[in-house]
Specification:
Length: 183
């Protein structure tokens, strides 16, 4: 059953399942080396559903951690600042092969900044993974290493993504009905 506020489903449950299976296989293959210590780093809050499903499909050993950032300083989307609200605090960062997990890439600022930040902090390697990619919205030149699916420039909710903190628990990615924006 589709939520009454959802106009259309953009990425359904079956497609999400196929995406997580494919990406987990790619990660399994790329991080199979015993000398690697894979750390999945989820960026709160949107990534939690995708990361939960993805990690269950990995067969290699994995650790998890989280950061929280806000992309927009002083309420202006164009400012381009990324503020760290919850930092990664581990003494062993220099032995970690970090794979940042995101629900969506839009301007690219968050992942571009975090990749540089974690590299400077001394991570052994830093790569990026996103369920959704909106390449048409890019403001900085950034290409994630693992991409679920490219989507058009529509506002999407579900599977971790919110509108005013609602709809994160929907098991699919969808587009809202106009009335949902006024409720
Ligand atoms: C979203 C998303 C990324 C970021 C992507 O998070 O989860 O972190 O925006 O945008 P960018 O490519 O333009 O930097 P949001 O700020 O909505 O927070 P949330 O995950 O807690 O909903």
């Amino acid at each position: 059953m589709t939520n009454k506020d959802v106009k259309k489903i953009l990425v359904g449950k079956a497609e999400i399942d196929a995406i997580t299976t494919r990406i987990a296989e790619e990660i399994d293959r790329d991080y199979a080396d015993n000398n690697k210590k894979l750390l999945l780093l989820g960026i709160l809050k949107g990534s939690v559903v995708f990361m939960g499903d993805l990690m269950k499909k990995l067969t290699i050993p994995v650790e998890i951690d989280f950061m929280k950032v806000s992309s927009y300083g002083a309420g202006t989307k164009s400012s381009g600042h990324v503020n760290i609200l919850l930092d990664l605090q581990r003494p062993d960062i220099n032995t970690c092969d970090i794979l940042i997990v995101e629900d969506i890439i839009d301007s690219g600022r968050t992942l571009s900044y975090l990749t540089d930040y974690l590299t400077l902090k001394g991570a052994k390697s830093v790569r990026t993974c996103t369920l959704l990619d909106k390449p048409s919205r890019r403001e900085v030149d950034f290409n994630p290493d693992y991409v679920g699916v490219e989507i058009p420039d529509e506002f999407v909710v579900g599977y971790g993504l919110d509108y005013n903190e609602k709809y994160r628990a929907l098991p699919y990615v969808g587009v809202l009905e106009p009335h949902a924006y006024n409720d």
